[in-house]
Amino acid sequence: MDISEALRTAIxxxxxxxxxxxxxxxxxxKIIELGKYLYSEQKKRKEGKTHAGQLKxxxxxxxxxxxxxxxxxxxxxxxxxxxxxxxxxxxxxxxERSLRxxxxxxxxxxxxxxxxxxxxxxxxxxKSEPRGLTIIIVKD
Length: 140
What we know:
Largest sheet: 4 strands, mixed
Oligomer: single chain
CATH superfamily of the largest domain: Translation initiation factor 3 (IF-3), C-terminal domain
Number of domains: 2
Helix content: 40-55%
Strand content: 25-35%
Mean pLDDT: 91
Strand order of the largest sheet: 3-4-6-5
CATH architecture of the largest domain: 2-Layer Sandwich
Distance between the termini: 49 Å
Shape: rod-shaped
CATH topology of the largest domain: Translation Initiation Factor IF3
């Protein structure tokens, strides 16, 4: 349809002529109400939004109790369901550094609790860093 004819039709119906695609030649347009179109496009963008590349961090301590470990696991589950990657970190201070095996057991206990809540995939295994341990997990 010719552009002048499309504009005339839109004016007769008290609607707007909205260009839907920009990259196609000739451009594709619709005769619709502009407000409704913008609202539906905004809604589509919100639904398609994911946090796939973004990291959320959870810190657990060396002396964390079982209940607190479960609470942290629930928080990690929320992040994973939202589409984030989760970096779990445990900072080791002083003499705690000499007990890295015990710290790794705590991390594994945390992962076990989280595995019971949701299916997870370990993106980066437990890594020993100068100040502690870290691991990156994603939703499976």
